[in-house]
Amino acid sequence: MALKLSSFFSNDIAIDLGTANTLVYVKGQGIVISEPSVVAVARKEKKVLAIGGEAREMMGKAHSNIEVIRPMRDGVIDDDEVAELMIRTFIRRVQRNRLMRPRIIVCVPSGVTKSEKRIIRDSAEYAGAREVYLIAEPMAAALGVHLPVKEPVGSMIVDIGGGTTEIAIISLGGIVTMHSVRIGGDEMDEAIAQFIRRNYNLLIGERMAEWIKCAIGTAMTLPEEVSLTAKGRDQLSGMPKAVDINSEEIREALSEPVAQIVAAVREALEKTPPELSADIRDRGIILTGGGSLLKRLDQKLRDETNLPVNLADDPLTCVVRGTGQVLESIESYQDLLLSSN
User: Fold this and answer.
1) What number of other Cβ atoms are within 10 A of residue 53's Cβ?
2) Domain total for the chain?
3) CB burial class (10 A; 0-12, 13-18, 19+) of residue 331?
4) In this predicted structure, what is the pLDDT of residue 6?
């Protein structure tokens, strides 16, 4: 009974500390937080003004005394101090008993370096964790879509996040082939912003670029092309300006990051042992992560690989759901956690 009460009061949590969004899963409760990984800070007072969605609303609109920071870049912590503040705030939001420090599992890119692991561990510990465990994002995503990761069968997962694309072939509880490229939703947004600047002399912000991507971004030709109005500042006159952009143009803008993702998938397949290749031929590829929602990206990968490609249900939450599954029974999944080295 004492062990159960300790578990109840400690609020152990799993965190998908993403470049674009942070999701928090509380043991026994499920996903309780899904917020943009953004923090607004008052420069002079060094005080946090807002975190998550409220801070994101300030992006591109704040005056000189307010700095809006995205502490994550390419799937890892870029600003230690701000990341710690963000993690601490999210932990406090979900803690029932602040006298008991929680155990935390954080998912990280499979290509994370030893120093990046240390930064993530330190940030979580300074934010209030009593123990910190790490798990590779593609392994967590595979668990989140209920792939048989511990069985002697090959499963392929492609997790496209805000800062990285994680590709893994998993069998017998381990990653047999792994390929991680620092290309994701952020690079798609930047490609759109550059295209519009280059072709229309129009400067747009991050949020406008992301909106365009979600609204009319596509990896392949659509049955019927669509358009929208992009708004920003004229690069030459400095005046507000609006231009009409169509999905064909945005597809051209996205061609390079999409091609890099396709190339990474093909490279991972080329490194796969023959027996596992046969499994993947039968079972196909599962797409997870927010970037996988780009229209017709699944069809693009089908055409390029001649393999079945399926988009996971609720791809945005696969990683945190898989990490939460580990949290619910850490002892059963010890072999899937990453070492400190």
Assistant:
1) 12
2) 3
3) exposed
4) 46
Dihedral (CA of 25, 31, 32, 36) sign: positive
Split the chain (341 residues) into runs of 10 and give each run's mean pLDDT: 45 92 95 96 90 94 93 89 90 78 90 87 89 94 96 96 94 93 95 98 96 98 96 96 97 98 96 95 96 97 97 96 95 88 57
- Sign (positive/negative) of CA torsion 187, 139, 270, 217? negative
- Do 229 and 267 reside in the same domain of the chain? no
Of 216, 221, 220, 219, the residue nearest 245 (C-alpha): 216
> Is 56 within a domain?
no
| pLDDT single digits (tens) 10-28 | 579 999 999 999 999 999 9
At 29, is the secondary structure helix, strand, or coil? coil
Q: Please check whether residue 109 lies inside any domain of the structure.
A: yes
Domain hosting 160: range is: 145-183+255-311
Residues 107 and 160 grouped into a single domain: no
Return the biggest CA–CA distance within the chain.
Answer: 71
Q: How many CB atoms lie within 10 A of CB 272?
A: 18
List strands edge to edge, sheet with 155-160. Answer: 174-181, 165-171, 155-160, 285-288, 309-311
